[in-house]
Amino acid sequence: MGVRVIRKKVKSAIGRSNLPGVSYTVNPYTGCSHGCIYCYARSYCPKEIGENWGKVVVVKENIVEVLAKEMRNKRKEGRLMLSTITDPYQPLEGKEKLTRGILQVLVNGKYKVSVQTKSDLVLRDLDLIVRNRENTDVGFTLTTLDERLAGMIEPSASPPRKRIKALGRLREEGIRTWIFFGPVLPGVDEGEIMEIAEIAKATDSAIFYDKFRVKEFMKSGIVGEIAEMARKTDWRVLARKIQEICDSIGVKAVPAFGRI
Ligand code: SF4
């Protein structure tokens, strides 16, 4: 099914962030056509977008110019995240190139830049990431390694194997990389946790993990079933297991939001 695109001009580009270790955020889009069925961002978006998650995306068409102006006027420092309520490399980015424009502006700034994505489209911008490698890190979200399951819960994102390949490619270029293991699905087995830990080990990436958080909209279908399982899961036991497995092979694992 196609995505309805709404084009909009914005007055500001940089927003404040409450995420641990992150001062600022830039979201080039509102909404995300990766359409993950568990996405929490839908709760922070306007109603039309939240209720049609993955099918309506606002393109902030002038965000690169606005960011350039903000950088000239403010020259802020700190960590800036791309992005917090959308994926900066969702399919529309292929032609819109807003994330690329943002990275071009940031190359000359003082921000530490963290990019988080579920798409190997990030490799298109390898030149800019390499140019700003001292200040840039890139994280890939891995929710599951099961390609079939990933296709069901993250329908338009790159399959896990492509994300892992892109992670390796960035690492080869000396870029600092990390894995966001989340939301951890209830029922994940030790074998899969070990596989993710081994990917982290091979790419010298830290793991940030977070549990599956049940939200109001998770009422039916697969997400409803996962939410039901999540309610019955002892997350402290699962978090200990993740820590033990990562520790056993020397991989740094940190609860993404301080605790699980
Ligand atoms: S990629 Fe991220 S922002 Fe996009 S739908 Fe999935 S969880 Fe939400």
Please specify the SSE layout and strand pairing.
Elements: E1 4-8, E2 14-16, E3 24-26, E4 29-30, H1 47-51, E5 56-60, H2 63-74, E6 77-82, H3 93-96, H4 98-106, E7 110-117, H5 126-131, E8 136-142, H6 147-153, H7 160-172, E9 176-184, H8 190-202, E10 206-211, H9 221-231, H10 235-248, E11 253-255
Parallel strand pairs: 1-5, 3-6, 6-7, 7-8, 8-9, 9-10, 10-11
Antiparallel strand pairs: 2-3, 4-5
Helix pairs in contact: 2-4, 8-10
Bound molecules: iron/sulfur cluster (SF4).
Iron/sulfur cluster binds at residues 32, 34-36, 39, 41, 86-87, 118, 154, 157.
Question: Helix share of residues?
Answer: 25-40%
Query: What name is given to the CATH topology?
Result: TIM Barrel
CATH superfamily: Aldolase class I
Number of helices: 10
Q: Strand share of the residues?
A: 15-25%
The helix/strand series, from N terminus to C terminus, equals: EEEEHEHEHHEHEHHEHEHHE
Highest CATH level, the class: Alpha Beta
Radius of gyration, rounded? 18 Å
